[in-house]
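== Folding task for one protein ==

=== Format: two labelled lines per protein ===

==== Paired sequence and structure tokens ====
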Amino acid sequence: MSEEEKNVTVKQGNPFIASFKGTLGKGLGCFTIIVIVIIVIAAISSGGKNKTQKVEENTQTQTTSEAKSEELSQQEYKVGDTVKLGDREFVVNTTRRASAVGYSTPKSGKEFVIVNVTIRNLGKDEVSYNPFDFKMQDINGAQESEAFASLDDDLSSGTLASNGKVTGSMAFEVPTETSAKLIFQPSFWSKERVVVAIEK
């Protein structure tokens, strides 16, 4: 073999090795693409899980809040119990019964239940108060607003500044010598309320 033929052989190299190198290069390229695709899919899946978790957390928080509201509405309190309802703190101080209030008399078979309450604003913003936020539920389940009876310390209507409080009384008609329930629901748009048992 001449020197020229040897040089040609060296330059051309081994065809098998060249083919292997080409295949290896293509394989590495495909492998790299597959790895990138897997990483992208994993990132998308991870992001989806995070979003789902946030929605679940928000749903759980909302459900917990609704459960607390329902629990508060169903629970009955006693005279003297201080109850927090939103930014308001509420307590029935005393109750008494009367067959007449001044010149006012109840309907036949009924008597007045006079309740003295205190409302305090625990929030930063003003809150309103009104006798129409209260109803008395009698033993038959009938709920009535305040009766027309003039009291020396009537609870009027108004607003409370932050940390402000107001104390006043209201009269309600109930069947004579029966138990009742005072319902305090300061917001027409909310189901949150406080129920206080009034013993006979």
Residues 76-198 form a domain with the Immunoglobulin-like fold (CATH 2.60.40.1240). The chain has two domains: 3-69, 76-198. The chain is about 35% helix and 30% strand. The helical segments are 3-12, 15-74.
